[in-house]
Amino acid sequence: MIPGAFNALVARAVAREGFKACYISGGASSNVAGYPDVGLLTLGEMCRTIREICDASALPVIADADTGFGEVECAVRTAVDYERAGAAALHIEDQVFPKRCGHLEGKELISPQDMADKISAMVSARCSRDFLIIGRTDARSVTGMDDAVARANLYREAGAEMVFPEGLADRSEFTDFARRSPGLLLANMTEFGKTEHIDAATFSSMGYSAVIYPLSIMRLAMKAASNGLSFLKANGTVEPLLGEMQTRQDLYDLLDYKPGRTWQFPRG
Fold this sequence. Notes:
This protein is of the alpha/beta class. The protein has a single domain, classed as Phosphoenolpyruvate-binding domains (TIM Barrel). Helix content is 44%, strand content 12%. The protein is built from ten helices and eight strands. An eight-stranded parallel beta sheet has the order 1-8-7-6-5-4-3-2. Helix 4 crosses helix 5. It is globular and about 55 Å long.
């Protein structure tokens, strides 16, 4: 289970709760910057987020690279810069830019070979073989399951160590995909999308090595923020909500901050 962290403080909480890795969603990163998930963040902005979250959590981080910020040459730079920023892995998708959220209609795909060329070039450019290149395909809801499987297997041949099939509907589709594209697999358990709710143990039993929860924590936090703002607007105080808040001491504990002591960066 790999929860999404939309900033460094959340990433510290992910680590404190004992998760073994952390995820950075392009959608969540865009949303907290005030943008929709249409590829408006720059490579530099994403790399800054990666550095902050890697430093704060000291966890292996999978980072969303969207479409690689351009054609092959741009995708190569993305791989190099993400690795230098501290990510353990990235995933790149086969959509046409400007991309759309994987659970929306109206997506368009680049050709399978163009995507394979991006993956091959990124694999060749990385500094360490420990840096994982994950090939994501959005074909299921555009051209169908057969094309999604064919693309996934082509991306594996191009060098992707893991495949991420986006927008599958239910257990039967995830099982079918795993059977037809054997190897490391990443599943996306996002809310309010095309995928039914499936627990981590079931994903594991179907052959998936990792499950990301890209927006779950952001959605919980924003619902709480909206409710708190509504309460403040209506009542002129948030004192009745103190029991629902993170206390000052809880925050200091999360930051490992003790007044009067020199603060240290976390070390993985």
